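Box 3.1 — From sequence to structure: DUF914-domain-containing protein
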Amino acid sequence: MTSSQDRFSPSAPDAPVGAHGGGSAPVARGDGVPADEIEGPHGTVHSDKAGDVETADADAASVTGGTAAAPARVKAGIFTYFRTRQFWIVLVLGQILALCLVGTGTFSNLLANKGTNIPAFQTFFNYVLLNIVYTSITIYRYGFKKWANVVLKDGWKYFIFAFMDVEGNYFVVLAYGYTTIMSAQLINFWAIVVVVLISLIFLRVRYHLTQYVGILLCIGGMGVLIASDHLQGTNGGAAADPVRGDLFCLLSATFYGLSNVFEEFLISRRPMYEVVGQLAFWGMLINGVQAAIFDRASFRAAVWDGPVFGYLVGYTLILFTFYSLAPVVFRMSSAAFFNIGLLTANFWTVVVGIKVFQYAVHWMYPIAFVLIVIGLFVYFMVEGGLGEAKKPWLGENQERGVSGLGTAKRRLENPEVTV
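Predicted structure (token representation):
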């Protein structure tokens, strides 16, 4: 989902930023709805045969004489989406995720100050906790046999997804060892470019002009932050191997962008507990192997005492929260908004750092923060009542999607629900 390291703060070796990407979808019925799971207003219906599934659309059809009534929609207009509760929920959730990144970065910095630098192993606990919670829920809802069928049938897609998530975290940790902070932050913008390009090409997303303007404003705000760091001489000094470091940054940003789009796609078509559970299951295996290979020496050299264990617990719980909330943001908005919303993490890092690490605030920081926030508002300026929750790849009535928390299909079926 995000990364085992704060993507925008080199002092945070392991703050996973929900990496997620594309792939083929699960087998669906003729109308495109996944055949084995429907989350709808009448509860979750499981079926191993497509013909056995009953959906809210079918219920509506029985009432209206065989044809499901088309749900009412709020037409798009300037500031329309601002008047909905969903906009403010998405905005707040985005900032909660940014604060989660600040938290993981802060705990990573505290661990590094104690002499415990185990980037791969540090994130392993998060995958374990996610696996315990969400895989357990999946097995409870599906039964062990059906869960095993998901692993055998769709496991390769979730393996690719988890691989992108783990490697995005891994390469950003490597990058900061070779390049400067400023170079790494600039190249991290590539993740936003990857998200937009992949969404345009593969998911057929069409952005409004105001959305491009909003993205540019957010990037401009981030540029002001980087400039202020440069003026203060806090951009990391000389690079040990800038070419290698920049290549690692590009790899990391690419993995992040791909994984974000992949998650938005998967989470729109499958139950949330299945997607997060499978990410955790495969991520735990991949991350565990990498930690065993690359973190053995640092693990032996690490300091292990009460504060270190406390930092690891705090880091894991915050990261668990991040991975649990990110899917809701992907459903209610998009991978593009997810990425630009996280840009404020740099500002919140300074706010926390004033208290924890005695940072000094440059006068350009508030300007940068305001620019990013304005960009977030401009991004949604001409969205309709459903905002970006309505996914173009799911059909006009979102018939190929799952009806679950945060989806447009759920709101079309139940106009009174908020999320």
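Summary of the box: The chain is about 65% helix and 5% strand.
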